[in-house]
Task: structure prediction
Amino acid sequence: MKRKITIRIVAGVVLVVMMLVIDPAVAVGAEADDQPAISVSTISLDFGSVPVGTSSSPKYLTATNTGDVPVNIESSFSEENPPYTATGDSCQNLPPKQSCQMQVIFHPRKTDPTTVIMKLVGRPGSGSLDSKPRIVSLTGVGAQ
Result:
């Protein structure tokens, strides 16, 4: 971004006009270089019916670093102590344009349907901001 300053005299008054000139390469909506960004392969995982006190078969999703800096893909859930676990051993220090697989398992504790939101972010190792979060809905039913 460049600044352009114009000075004009109108009716004996000095007007100073400052304009910001935007570089067309950094258009509105474009992300600046060295920004973290991720994508995920799905927006929902359905585990179906799983007996209470057991664990489901794992389901997988792919997280891709679509940004310009290495990131750690981190997950959090919409509730404390959720009946789901998510792991992704190869999702640490993920280079740009690379993908990793995350494993999610449902561990029902009651005989009710459950939906939990899992939020994934790409967190760079240095002081940059996190990527925009990606949301994955996790559903399953605890069976007797």
About this structure: The chain has one domain: 38-143. The chain has a mean pLDDT of 84.
